[in-house]
């Protein structure tokens, strides 16, 4: 059966044969066995809802087996036989071009070249799921292939609830992931309700179909690393020959070595999972592999002597690297960590002293003992980082809950006031004040024709737009614009594409709107050969409330609220988004963040032009307004400037209180 017919079929009419799993596949770790006997029966009853009665007996024992072996029911048997990747949009059966664009994005998120654990429908971050099981995938694709522009598909944590009548102006898809009653958002609640098959962890761009491979984070990481060095180095000192030490070569963290190369330093990146490290090496995202600390030290010294721009993967635990480089007295200018500490007890962080295999066994056989090993390792990890920072290293939290989990583990990571951490998050020091408060964030697009020539043309259009904006830009944002112009001009040469023909570019509201307009014009005139899908990372100005990351530089006490993210998703949905999503969890962990995003298909039409203006304007300025109300100077500057340009924008501005008014009150 051809691809289109299989998509239209949804769940097959006859029970497909059992499958062998691809031997080289990077499988998700076994999940916690958390359900009681009765709850396990409920999980199987839930899973069987997708299938006709006469399959129930056979599938019930198979699903019980999956639950026992993997801790979840993935319904492996129903994984389709066709290749899953972002095909040209014209390959998707559809009655709605917008829905076809969403199918392309879903398939990109599940492409084995892109996804971390494709068999388990996990795109990145260890547990960032597109769907909970293959039945949900099959049904969703069928709905998308048959729906019209008068319908909206509502997605409940991977489950397609169904098509509801709506209108051409409405989003085609509304996605929620992991939305819980607030009291049910502890890590074990995710384990339990995910095992029951009623919710999932959508991460940020996994469950919203907007992941574009590690490129999505290379740009943000390059900006962070470059500005981290700018903060640390003295006037005239150069980055060449200086060291950036970090960990993780997974979905997102795999971008670090490439970003280090773009910034021009020596990057050392430790990775305990050899499969992950080798994959990044083969893809050319990291230059050198070192299997032990002796060869690592030798290679680092050589790179320092030659002021080489090079990225080195160490196959092992990052704690061993920090400790060894301290012993060797090798100075680390910039340090961070991007292990998956948002998910510390289920394979996100591998403790020092245990091999990768030993950890994988212990976390299942004895979760309590594994937890104490992780906490012991975090205390050791922080102790060695502290030794380096005492010598002058600039260490920052990379949005993975490293400081939060270390503090919970009792590591020496608190500042003297016992409220703050010793070290800043990268958003507090770098991305918040320099990017988000001005509206700069990770705008992205995908050329739906699948033609790389379209991507080249879109890069050129975006560069032209930014250069024109820079001519009259205020000094406050010229550094940002220059960095982004350099990025987009070098993007092709940096070979960033994995999966769909996608590009990321930090831009503010003005930049995003003008770039989108140029694309829409290009599609209309035929200069670009197919539609372009716009989106962004959720890690942005407005979409995400996350007190230890995106909103960590909000100091009016509101960083523990999530009003901004909710307004964002509602506001985008009625201003023209093609799809919208809102998630609990993502980045720093389940219960720790509410994050949302959108996708928008540009087809060269007048309607697309209207939609992009309305929606992109709100999507960025919502966050700047909130940041300005929190008294952030850069956001106050940006929102006042926007109000001058846009008379119908009226934002409530704060009156700044002098310190002496409060001095002797209590
Ligand atoms: N800063 C950002 O902009 C940003 C963006 C996205 C994600 N994140 C966060 O970064 C983290 C990593 O994301 P990801 O998608 O790369 O996750 P991932 O799980 O794909 O990769 C993390 C990698 O760390 C490795 N690892 C774990 N413990 C280790 C240890 N002690 N030593 C060496 N390697 C170890 C794992 O084997 C894994 O490959 C997540 O918490 C994520 O939420 C940050």
Question: How is this fold's topology laid out?
Answer:
Layout: H1 3-9, H2 37-48, H3 56-70, H4 97-110, E1 122-124, E2 128-129, H5 134-146, E3 151-156, E4 159-165, E5 173-177, H6 187-195, H7 215-232, E6 243-247, H8 256-263, E7 266-271, H9 274-282, E8 288-290, H10 293-305, E9 310-315, H11 318-327, E10 334-335, H12 344-348, H13 356-365, H14 367-390, E11 394-395, H15 402-408, H16 426-434, E12 441-447, H17 452-471, H18 478-490, E13 502-507, H19 509-525, E14 532-536, E15 544-545, H20 563-573, E16 579-584, E17 594-602, H21 606-629, H22 633-645, H23 659-662
Parallel strand pairs: 3-5, 5-16, 6-7, 6-10, 7-9, 8-9, 10-11
Antiparallel strand pairs: 1-2, 3-4, 12-13, 12-14, 14-17, 15-17, 16-17
Nicotinamide-adenine-dinucleotide is lined by residues 116, 124-126, 217, 220, 247-253, 270-273, 276, 317-318, 338-342, 349-350, 398-400, 539, 587.
């Amino acid at each position: 059966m051809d691809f289109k017919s299989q998509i239209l079929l949804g769940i097959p009419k006859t029970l497909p044969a059992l499958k062998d799993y691809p031997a080289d596949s990077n499988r998700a770790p076994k999940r916690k066995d958390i359900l009681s006997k009765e709850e396990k029966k409920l999980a199987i009853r839930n899973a069987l809802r997708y299938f006709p009665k006469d399959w129930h007996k056979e599938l019930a024992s198979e699903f019980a087996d999956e639950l026992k072996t993997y801790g979840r029911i993935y319904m492996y048997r129903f994984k389709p036989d066709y290749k899953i990747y972002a095909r040209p949009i014209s390959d998707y059966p559809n009655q709605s071009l917008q829905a076809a664009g969403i199918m392309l994005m879903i398939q990109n998120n599940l492409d084995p070249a892109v996804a971390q654990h494709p068999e388990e429908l996990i795109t990145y971050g260890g547990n960032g799921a597109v769907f909970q099981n293959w039945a949900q995938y099959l049904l969703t694709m069928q709905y998308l292939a048959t729906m019209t522009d008068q319908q909206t598909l509502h997605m409940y944590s991977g489950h397609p609830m169904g098509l509801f009548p709506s209108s051409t102006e409405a989003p085609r898809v509304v996605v929620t992931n992991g939305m819980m009653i607030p009291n049910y958002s502890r890590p074990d609640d995710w384990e339990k309700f995910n095992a029951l098959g009623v919710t999932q962890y959508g991460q940020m761009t996994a469950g919203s179909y907007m992941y574009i491979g590690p490129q999505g984070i290379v740009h943000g990481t390059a900006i962070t690393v470059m500005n981290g060095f700018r903060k640390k180095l003295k006037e005239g000192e150069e980055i060449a020959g200086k060291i950036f030490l970090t960990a993780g070569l997974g979905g997102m963290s795999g971008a670090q070595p490439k970003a280090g190369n773009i910034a021009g330093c020596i990057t050392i990146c430790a990775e305990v999972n050899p499969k992950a490290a080798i994959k990044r090496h083969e893809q050319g995202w990291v230059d050198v592999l070192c299997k032990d600390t002796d060869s690592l030290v030798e290679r680092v010294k050589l790179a320092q002597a030659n002021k080489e721009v090079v990225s080195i993967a160490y196959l092992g635990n990052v704690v061993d690297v920090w400790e060894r480089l301290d012993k060797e007295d090798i100075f680390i200018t910039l340090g961070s960590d991007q292990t998956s500490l948002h998910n510390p007890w289920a394979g996100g962080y591998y403790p020092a002293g245990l091999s990768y295999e030993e950890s994988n066994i212990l976390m299942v056989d004895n979760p309590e003992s594994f937890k104490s090993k992780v906490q012991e390792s975090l205390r050791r990890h922080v102790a060695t980082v502290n030794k380096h920072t005492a010598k002058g290293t600039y260490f920052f939290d990379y949005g993975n809950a490293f400081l939060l989990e270390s503090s919970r583990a009792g590591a020496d990571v608190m500042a003297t006031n016992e409220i703050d951490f010793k070290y800043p998050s990268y958003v507090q020091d770098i991305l918040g004040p320099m990017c988000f408060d001005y509206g700069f964030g990770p705008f992205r697009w995908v050329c739906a024709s699948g033609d790389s020539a379209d991507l080249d043309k879109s890069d050129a259009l975006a560069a032209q737009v930014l250069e024109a904006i820079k001519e009259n830009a205020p000094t406050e944002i010229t550094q940002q614009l220059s960095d982004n112009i350099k990025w987009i001009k070098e993007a092709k040469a940096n070979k960033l594409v994995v999966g769909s023909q996608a590009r990321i570019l930090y831009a503010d509201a003005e930049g995003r709107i003008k770039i989108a307009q140029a694309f829409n014009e290009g599609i209309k005139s035929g200069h670009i050969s197919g539609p372009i899908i716009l989106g962004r990372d959720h890690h942005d100005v407005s979409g995400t409330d996350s007190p230890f990351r995106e909103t960590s530089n909000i100091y009016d006490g509101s960083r523990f609220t999530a009003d901004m993210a909710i307004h964002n998703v509602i506001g985008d949905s009625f201003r023209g988004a093609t799809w919208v999503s809102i998630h609990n969890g993502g980045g720093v962990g389940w219960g720790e963040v509410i994050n949302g995003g959108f996708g928008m298909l540009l087809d060269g039409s007048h309607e697309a032009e209207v939609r992009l203006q309305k929606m992109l304007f709100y999507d960025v300025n919502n966050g700047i307004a909130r940041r300005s109300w929190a008294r952030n100077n850069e956001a106050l500057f940006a929102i006042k400037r926007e109000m001058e340009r846009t008379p119908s924008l009226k934002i409530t501005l704060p009156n700044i209180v002098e310190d002496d008014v409060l001095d002797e009150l209590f």
